[in-house]
Amino acid sequence: MTKPLKKLTRSVQLYLILLIISTIGILYGTLFPTDYNVPRSFYGLDKVVHFVMFGAWTFFFGIVRFLKGNFKLMIVFTGGAAFGILIEVLQHYLPTGRNPEMLDLVADIAGTGAAVIVLYIISKTFTLFSPNPHENAI
Fold first, then answer.
1. Exposure winner among 35, 42, 64, 125, fewest CB in 10 A?
2. DSSP characters for 34-65?
3. Contact call for residues 80 and 22 (beta carbons, < 8 A)
């Protein structure tokens, strides 16, 4: 493995910054008031955005946990799913004009699940990301 790639895979700060940026993006995109109407042609695409946002957040969360020596995929999945549930609950209670949707939550959890699957494949494929070659990552 090349030296820059090895350094990139071990850079906790990089993934922590990406995790923070994705957290801010999710909070802004889901909790700030909106004063615009979404064109009908975009209906349903927000589910794709939810899937991608929570998939990315979960991926960065999992990589940060791995690099800090605590790589349990069930905890990563639970963290991503809990974050999605929290967002939908906050949308219900905060006066932002946003409405919680069950399909948003489904997309959040599906993105989280996809990221966990990717993390699992990475942990089994690349020994550099393997938490312990003799231990199960789940």
1. 35
2. --SPPPGGGTTHHHHHHHHHHHHHHHHHHHHH
3. no
Please give the structure tokens belonging to residue 52: 């991608």
CB of 9 within 8 A of CB of 128? yes
Q: How far apart (Å, rounded) are the C-alpha atoms in residues 22 and 40?
A: 27
Residue 15 vs residues 11, 18, 24: alpha-carbon distances, Å: 7, 5, 14
Cα→Cα distances 29→33, 39, 124, Å: 9, 17, 33
Dig out the tokens for 68 from the structure. Answer: 């800090």
Are residues 61 and 19 in contact, defined by beta-carbon separation less than 8 angstroms?
Answer: yes
Give the C-alpha distances (Å, rounded to integers) separating 89 from 9, 56, 78, 137: 35, 21, 16, 31
Per-residue pLDDT tens over the stretch 66-114: 888 777 899 999 999 999 999 999 999 988 888 889 999 999 999 999 9
In whole angstroms, give the CA distance from residue 47 to residue 53: 10
Question: 3-state class of 98 per DSSP?
Answer: coil
